[in-house]
TrEMBL record:
Keyword field: Cell membrane, Lipid biosynthesis, Lipid metabolism, Membrane, Phospholipid biosynthesis, Phospholipid metabolism, Repeat, Secreted, Transferase, Transmembrane, Transmembrane helix
Domain of life of the organism encoding this protein: Bacteria
Parts forming coiled coils: none
Signal peptide segment: none
Organism: Parvularcula dongshanensis
Gene Ontology MF: a single term: cardiolipin synthase activity
Domain called PLD phosphodiesterase: residue spans: 212-239, 387-414
Lipid biosynthesis found in the keyword field: yes
Name used for this protein in its record: Cardiolipin synthase
EC number: 2.7.8.-
């Protein structure tokens, strides 16, 4: 066969693939911008775009959705889980003032009798986590997006190995992509000691290779069903401020006691069932915290949901604000719905502030953020750039009585592609702690000014505009 004939059929196959992917994008993609971006790429550069579409083009995680349904059927039908899900405290929805809809978006609902403690850096976070692991008697569940084989990673491994040695059941769940560079020898240190280790994504040998764009970004630790941790920190020395590139690292986590622990545990159990195919024997009897009566809920979001729960969570939070809305995120790449909600909040008199890092860790997302900040400031939104190191925390403060801490960033990946988890606390005392934390961060930030963008070079502005166009697929 002549080479020209080979190339002809090669072209035919790729253009048929481009048509097929284009039709799939048209029918399945959830945003007009994302669909248009993929259509242009598929027909302009089919040789590159068709393979990329198989990896990055889909918006709904069908394999996980099926696994999630199995997990719900296997986990929720257990009598002890049913008792937790039927747990009805003294009708706390009213305290969530405007964020009652979070219960309808997802999660196990608001509960009372919780004690949620703010942990304001990596040292405080991991000291509390290590203490809980050392005290565990029945089981330890650990889930992070990133585990590094460094000093902090080995300290965590030592704690879990010691716990397993004294008869505590230990389970560790990691994301395959987040831990792509973590050596196998690191995991072997756990498994040799009897710790169960599973990777999110490892059970999809063929189809899973084309679902790399979906990440489990959750960070959850549960010990004995009576204490849990959720937040933005991962397991790595950089989260202790020991990064040569970024130096100081700003992040936030929470320590939880009360019925909210079982809600965090439920999110872990469903992820574990998908990854390991196992329903763990856990403690599901909800217990009120001894030293707290906070109203709170845990909201897991992700691409397996029927609705775009990540985006809806932020829209609901923004719409509930009456006087003040402070948002801290390492990335500011909101979709149209979130940006419109932010503008309307500012226009109706809400003090809207957004704080992002001055240093980038992902260049394209950082560049796109410049254009979104320019747009936001035209509606009166105040933007700040944190200069005290790298700002990685994900926090939202609403008025004087509601605060959110979790794993979700303000970008398309957290809105539609990542599995995230957020703690929503309706409590003036906790909100005051978050306010104090963010105010201290504002002291190490500078206000974004016109010269940050307008006086940059033409090449920089072109890069910003190009990154903005890619925002739906970043």
């Amino acid at each position: 066969m002549e080479s020209s004939t080979i190339f002809f059929w090669f072209d035919v196959v790729f253009y048929i693939g481009a048509v097929g992917c284009g039709l799939h994008s048209l029918m399945a993609n959830r945003t007009a911008q994302g669909t248009l971006a993929w259509m242009l790429a598929l027909f302009a550069l089919p040789y590159a775009a068709v393979p990329l579409y198989f990896v990055f083009g889909r918006r709904h995680f069908g394999a996980y959705a099926s696994g999630l349904k199995r997990a719900q059927e296997r986990v929720r039908t257990k009598a002890e889980v049913e008792r937790f899900l039927a747990y009805e405290p003294e009708s706390p929805r009213h305290a969530a003032r405007g964020l009652e809809v979070a219960e309808d978006i997802g999660g196990a609902g608001y509960t009372t009798g919780n004690c949620v403690t703010l942990l304001q850096d990596g040292y405080e976070t991991f000291e509390a986590i290590f203490e809980a692991i050392d005290r565990a008697e029945a089981y330890v569940l650990v889930q992070f997006y990133i585990f590094r084989d460094d000093d902090l990673g080995r300290r965590l491994r030592d704690r879990m190995v010691a716990a397993a040695g004294r008869g505590v059941r230990c389970c560790l769940l990691y994301d395959e992509i987040g831990c792509f560079t973590t050596p196998r020898s690191y995991w072997a240190g756990f498994t040799k000691a009897g710790v169960k280790v599973s990777a999110f994504g490892a059970r999809r040998p063929l189809r899973g290779r084309f679902e790399l764009n979906f990440r489990n970004h959750r960070k959850i630790v549960v010990c004995d069903g009576n204490v849990a941790f959720v937040g933005g920190n991962n397991v790595g020395d950089e989260y202790l401020g020991e990064s040569k590139r970024f130096g100081a690292w700003r992040d936030a986590h929470v320590r939880i006691e009360g019925p909210l622990v079982q809600a965090a545990q439920l999110a872990f159990q469903q992820d574990w069932e998908f990854a390991a195919g196992e329903v763990l024997p856990l403690e599901w009897q909800a217990q009120r915290a001894e030293n707290g009566n906070q109203i709170a809920m845990i909201l897991p979001t992700g691409p397996a949901d029927n609705l775009e729960t990540g985006s809806l969570m932020f829209v609901a939070a923004i719409n509930s604000a009456q006087k003040r809305l402070w948002i801290v995120s390492p990335y500011f790449v909101p979709d149209q719905a979130v940006m419109s909600a932010l503008k309307l909040a500012s226009l109706r008199g809400v003090e809207v502030r957004v704080m992002v890092p001055d240093k980038p860790d992902h260049l394209a997302v950082w560049l796109a953020g410049f254009d979104f900040i320019e747009e936001a400031e035209r509606a009166g939104i105040e933007a700040y750039r944190y200069t005290g190191g790298f700002l990685h925390q994900k926090a939202v403060l609403i008025d004087h009585d509601i605060a959110m801490i979790g794993t979700a960033n303000m970008d398309n990946r957290s809105f539609r592609l990542n599995f995230e988890v957020t703690v929503i606390v309706a409590d003036e005392g906790f909100a005051a702690c978050v306010e104090d934390m963010i105010e201290k961060d504002f002291e190490k930030a500078r206000e974004h000014v016109e010269t940050d963008y307008q006086q940059r070079s033409v090449l920089f502005k072109l890069a910003v505009r190009g990154a903005r166009l890619l925002a739906p697929v970043l």
